[in-house]
Design brief:
The protein is an alpha/beta fold. The protein has a single domain (about 5-195), classed as Nucleotidyltransferase, domain 5. It has helices spanning about 65-70, 75-80, 85-95, 105-120, 135-140, 155, 175-190, and strands at about 5-10, 30-40, 45-50, 100, 130-135. A 5-stranded mixed beta sheet has the order 3-2-1-4-5, with helices on both faces. Strand 2 (about 30-40) and strand 3 form a beta hairpin.
Length: about 200
C-alpha cells in the first residue's frame, strides 16, 4: 500500500430520519457533499477532494440538514453538480487506491450510483475498482473512546488538536475526513497497525 483514500459523505436528512433509517416516504439518502483525502502510508495528507451534489428527488434541503451541516440552499444551488458527474469524479479521484470510511458510507455511495444509473445517467469510472472498507469496528476496538463518536469528533475523543486543512466542522465532509486522518496519524505514530484490508 503506497496511498489510500479516506472519504465521508453528507446526505439528505430530516428530523428522526436517522432513527427511522430513512424509511419515511420520500426520504432517500441522496448525497449532498463528498469529501475525500488521499493519504500516504504515514497518514499524511497528499491531496483532497470536495464537491457539492444536487439531490434529485429532494432538491430542497431541509432546515434540519442545513443546521446540521452548515450547507445552505443558495450555496448548493450555486456550487452543486449533478450526481452522476460528482460520483464519477469521486471514483476518478479514488483511482484504484483502497478507500475507507468511518461507517457504511460506501452503501450510500452505492445507492446513489444505482439511482443515477436508473435515470439513464452515465457514472464514469468503475465503482468496483477501489476496495472499500468501513474502519469503524477496527477503530472502536483499538480506541474504545471512539465507540459513540461520529467522524467529525474523533479527534476530540483522543484529545488531539483540532484538524486543520478544511473549513467548517463536524458534519462537513472534508473536515470529517481530516478528523479521521488525524486519528489514523496519531494511532500510526503510537505503533498501531492499520486494518489488514489496507495492506
Amino acid at each position: 500500500m503506497s496511498t489510500f483514500v479516506v472519504f465521508d459523505l453528507e446526505f439528505t436528512t430530516w428530523p428522526g430520519a436517522y432513527e427511522q433509517n430513512w424509511s419515511a416516504p420520500g426520504q432517500l439518502r441522496e448525497i449532498v457533499q463528498i469529501g475525500a483525502l488521499r493519504l500516504a502510508e504515514d497518514c499524511s495528507v497528499i491531496e483532497g477532494y470536495e464537491t457539492l451534489v444536487h439531490p434529485v428527488v429532494n432538491p430542497r434541503l431541509s432546515p434540519f440538514f442545513t443546521t446540521l451541516t452548515g450547507i445552505d440552499q443558495q450555496t448548493l444551488d450555486r456550487d452543486g453538480v449533478p450526481p452522476a458527474q460528482a460520483l464519477g469524479d469521486f471514483l476518478g479521484f479514488c483511482q484504484e487506491d483502497p478507500v475507507l470510511s468511518y461507517g457504511n458510507d460506501m452503501l450510500v455511495l452505492g445507492e446513489n450510483i444505482g439511482w443515477a444509473r436508473s435515470r439513464g445517467e452515465e457514472v464514469k469510472n468503475n465503482p468496483l475498482a477501489p476496495t472499500f472498507l468501513n474502519i469503524r469496528p477496527w477503530l472502536n476496538t483499538v480506541a474504545p473512546t471512539t465507540v459513540s463518536i461520529n467522524s467529525g469528533r474523533l479527534w476530540q475523543a483522543l484529545d488531539l488538536p483540532r484538524p486543520t486543512g478544511a473549513s467548517g466542522g463536524e458534519h462537513s465532509a472534508l473536515f470529517d475526513c481530516h478528523s479521521i486522518a488525524a486519528v489514523l496519524r496519531h494511532l500510526a505514530g503510537a505503533g498501531v497497525t492499520l486494518p489488514k484490508g489496507l495492506l
